[in-house]
Amino acid sequence: MNSFPKTIQSEPSSGRGREDKERSLSSYDYELPPSAIAQNPVIPRDSAKLLVVDSPHTHCHRIFSDLPQLLKPGDLLIMNDTRVIPARLHGRKTSGAAVEVLLLEEKQYNTWLALVKPGKRLQKGARIVFAREAGEAGEAQYVSISATVLEVNEATGGRLLRFDLPNGVSLLQILDSFGEIPLPPYITDSQAEDDQYQTVYAQNAGAIAAPTAGLHFTPELLQKLAEKGINSAFITLHVGVGTFRPVEVEDVTTHQMHGEWIDVSAATVEQIRATKARGGRVIAVGTTAVRALEGAAALSGQLEPFCGKTQLFIYPGYQWRVVDGLITNFHLPRSSLMMLVSALIGRQRLLDLYTEAIANAYRFYSFGDAMLILPEARVTHP
C-alpha cells in the first residue's frame, strides 16, 4: 500500500483571487461517482486506506494500521467519546397514519426536539404512539410509549415532543427497545451492525451520528499506539443533524453554524498543555474533536475546560489555537467539514487530494477511508 510521495500543484498561497474563491460556496464542489460512497465498513476497521498528507506539496498512500509508524512518541490523539443513540423511531398517529421521528436533542427531561415526517399535519397537541420492538420476555417493561407535540420549532422545522413516561423513567433508559441507530441518508444499502457505527471507545450517549474518523481504530491499534508513547485523551461532542446539512449561502463567511454540545474536561486540557510544553503535537481525531477544542479555546483566546454549546465555524483564514494535525474522513461537497479541513491545508490542495483519492478508489463518507494531515502539511497565515 505504500508509495513514494507525489508532488501536486497548489494554487498561490496569497492574493485576492484565492481569498474570493475560499469565500465562495461553489468553490467547495466536486464530482463523486456514486460507487465511491461506502455503504459498509471494512473489516477489520484499521484496514481502511489512509491518505497521508506529510508536507505542503507531498502525500503518500498507506493503510490505517500504519498509524503508529506515522506519528511520533509524545504526540497526543484527541478522540470524541460520544455514543450514537437509537434516535430513529417509527410510530403512528392516533389516526393510524405512520410517522417517523428522528430525535435531535433533549431540551428538558423526556422532552426532545425531533424531526418528524410527514410533519405538516403534526401540529401542537398531536399524539404519537410507539410500539417496542419484539424481544425476549421480560426485556422491557413497556410494550408501547407515547409522545405529545408541544410546539413546532421554526428553526429546524421539527417538533418539540414530550414523552409521556412514569416518574423516574428516562427515555434514554428504554430507547434501545423502541429506536434504531440512524445511518446517514447517503447510506442506502448497508448490512452494517449497530456496533460498527460506534467507535470502540464510545461512552457518553447523546449523538445521532458517529464521529466517523474514530471508526477506524481497533483496541489492538490503540494498544500499539500507547506502547509507542503516543497518548490519547477524550472530549465529548454530541454530533447533531447539522453535520449533514449543506451550507446554503454563496458567501460562506455569512453561514450560521449549528450549535453542538461539547465537554472539554480539565484533565484533557492538562494533557494538552503538558504535551505542548514538552514539544509534542496535538492530533485531532475527526472534525468533531477539532470543533470541541477550538470552540472551547475561542471563548477566552486560550484552551480552558468548558461544558456547553459551540457554534464555531472554521473556514480558510482561521487562526488555529490548539490543533496541530488531523485524522479525518472524506466529506460531502459544499459542507462545513470541507471548509474546516481547507482551513488546515488550503482549499485547492484539499480538492486536488480528493481527486487523487477518487482516482485511487478511496471510499468516501462515514464508512469510508481516511486522511492523516500531519502538522508539517499545514498552511500558514500571516
TrEMBL record:
Primary enzyme class: transferase
Biased composition (Polar residues): 1-13
InterPro entries: QueA, QueA_dom1, QueA_dom2, QueA_sf
EC numbers on record: 2.4.99.17
GO annotation terms (biological process): tRNA queuosine(34) biosynthetic process
Catalyses which reaction(s): 7-aminomethyl-7-carbaguanosine(34) in tRNA + S-adenosyl-L-methionine = epoxyqueuosine(34) in tRNA + adenine + L-methionine + 2 H(+)
Main location group: cytoplasm
Region described as Disordered: spans on this chain: 1-30
Subcellular location: Cytoplasm
Keyword annotations of the record: Cytoplasm, Queuosine biosynthesis, S-adenosyl-L-methionine, Transferase
Biological pathway: tRNA modification; tRNA-queuosine biosynthesis
Quaternary structure, from the entry: Monomer.
Protein family according to the UniProt entry: Belongs to the QueA family.
Name used for this protein in its record: S-adenosylmethionine:tRNA ribosyltransferase-isomerase
Organism encoding this protein: Aliterella atlantica CENA595
UniProt lineage: Bacteria, Bacillati, Cyanobacteriota, Cyanophyceae, Chroococcidiopsidales
